[in-house]
Amino acid sequence: MEQHVTPCEDAPPPLMYRVERPVFDEAYLHTQLLHPRERSPKTIRQRLAHCSSERAKAIALSFLPILTWLPSYPVKEYLFGDLVSGLSTGVMQLPQGLAYAMLAAVPPVYGLYSSFYPVLLYTFFGTSRHISIGTFAVISLMIGGVVVREAPDSMFMIQALNGTATNTTVFIDTEARDARRVHIAVVLTTLVGVIQLVLGLLRFGFVAIYLTEPLVRGFTTAAAVHVFISQLKYLLGIQTPRFSGPLSALHSVTAVFSDITSTNVTTLIVGGVCMVVLYCVKDLNERFKKKLPVPIPGEIIVVMVSTGISYGLSLSENYQVDVVRTIPSGLLPPAIPDFSLLPNLVTDSIAIAVVGFSMGISLAKIFALKHGYSVDGNQELIALGLCNFVSSFFHTFAITCSMSRSLVQESTGGNTQIAGLLASMVVLLVVVAIGFVFQPLPQTALAAIIMVNLLGMFKQFRDIPALWRTSKIELAIWLVAFVASVLLGLDLGLLVALGFAILSVIYRTQSETCDSASLFQAAECTGIKIFHSNSSIYFANSDLYLNALKEKTGVDPVHLQAIRKARKRKLKKESAERESQNHKSPQKMSAVVKLVSPFNMDLELGVTHEVVAGGGSQNHLEVQGNGQVAETHTESDSEETRFLEPLCPVHTLILDWTPVNFIDSVGAKAIKLSVRYRPTYQTVCCFLTGTLLAELRTLQFFTGVVAPEMVFPTVHDAVLHCRRRTAPPTITAIQ
């Protein structure tokens, strides 16, 4: 149909769109237009010949990304920015490494080890130029939960005699406990590295997509609650056991408030002052970030000042303030982890591996998009796996990227991984040369650093009203992740949240809108219904798909088939009654009308027409395509031919599969069920992708009632085909 529009004098002529070609179906496309693909598998010799030296070089460069950017590193342009960024990040990494080791339930020096080795390795294997690898609060807390569960304080209780046999004192062998917990954390890190490395080599970088953003934000907010609660005892200077497992947060809060009367006032004052100073510094950095050349290093200022005050006033001896105590100088020699602990840590290591990678890749993609480069998810998995696996032999615990340090590294002018390398050198300098300086550092100062750094995570509570306005389902995912992680612990909470997120996907695919294709002012073709579904067809929604098909098109194949059978029985009964009166008087001949169409459909149509004939022969009426009736005589010529009303005004259903990505065996059977009743109506499909067609051929979909001639590349092809083939057909009336 052409539309003629009178254009304005100055308006350009309208663009015209005309296509003239034959109507294509899948059988024609497959046999005539598509080139046959080579199906014979390649031999080993062919595969080896394909592996050229250039391909080997490309594989090596992808495995070692530093070889792609270091030879062309612009020293004059990038070096100063990387130097300032590395020093700023390293100064920030020192106190965070010491503090997050407390979350991991290991001595603080192991946080410094974890801030050196992984950062050094990521420089060679990572693809992000701006993220800061090292200790992170959520991962450290997850490690601490596992460590405390496997090595609780009760395992290291020792009774000591006080002069007499009746007076005994129970104390904890902290040296043995800490050594055991370090072994557990190291083995857990080894297993996390192996899992990440294997997933990366198998190209499983897409696993992070199952941790949707509302799930991650709800989970990290719950982790912030756990971290905050775990630091209350250090801030108040009280001694309470550390809990793990379901309801551990409630048990920790109960233990803190039940012993709150024993609060060390000096510890509380030191911690409170540190929190106020850190908050003010962070606020100043945020307000004047455009004017400050580098952010004010609030954490290192607090660490140095509190260490000096603690040393000068002897807070540990005079006021019983808990301090870091021993920090050995130098690096420990490598050692093989105790792999006998592996069986109890598999589930926890999977959760830590996935969460660590998810946080790392999400932040890496944000910076890559901002600065115009790309990151490889699979290579990031390999890089994190190598960082964790190799570093675990040097007594580290699992790491990922830190949001706060990454923002500092990027905002202070960091351009490449050289900034991270310089940050690791700062940590190495402290570990080797001046680690002993931080031995008087109060633990409450580290608790203050951790608590203030949680401020950004607590701001994620603002997601709740935003999600309420935009997506109730995503709000439910956020709330389930938060509540489950707070009450059940981070490991079980993550599992529950992931299961709920998957159920929400199933719910949304089952509840996808299905409708007959319609547009404003569009004219519907008589007898043709176009059905459009917004989801794939598989076991979870195949029944819903058929129900929506019946509801939207008004075509119920089972109901129509029942009516058809009832009419046949009625015709048969009437025919038997007439035959009993055949010798008494001329009679009407009941007839079944057979519509002979190119689709091989039998439609019972109706006309108000009677034929009265004498004699003993039967009339055979043929209505040709031009509407004329040709009469032939058969055995009985005294029957009256009567045509029935049509069963259904719809003679064709067109299934538009434009958004369908896959169909499983259950979905294929459901579609075949709708096509099965071809005596009532016909069904054709359109817009199938090549992958979907291959799946359907594998499922042997094109057998029986379904043929490739029923599949068309576009809706328009299908409509033209059906309108042409449903032109006035040949009708044969037979008894």
From TrEMBL:
- Sequence intervals crossing the membrane: 98-125, 131-148, 184-211, 260-280, 292-313, 350-369, 381-398, 418-438, 445-461, 476-503
Q: How does it sit in the membrane?
A: Multi-pass membrane protein
Question: Sorted alphabetically, which InterPro entries does this protein's record hold?
Answer: S04_transporter_CS, SLC26A/SulP_dom, SLC26A/SulP_fam, STAS_dom, STAS_dom_sf
Q: Quick one: a GO cellular component term?
A: membrane
Q: Where in the cell is it found?
A: Membrane
List the SUPFAM superfamilies. Answer: SpoIIaa-like
Q: What is the first-listed, main subcellular location in coarse terms?
A: membrane
Alphabetical UniProt keywords = Membrane, Transmembrane, Transmembrane helix
Pfam families this protein is in? Answer: STAS, Sulfate_transp
* Entry protein name: Solute carrier family 26 member 5
Organism encoding this protein: Oncorhynchus kisutch
- Report which gene this protein is encoded by: SLC26A5
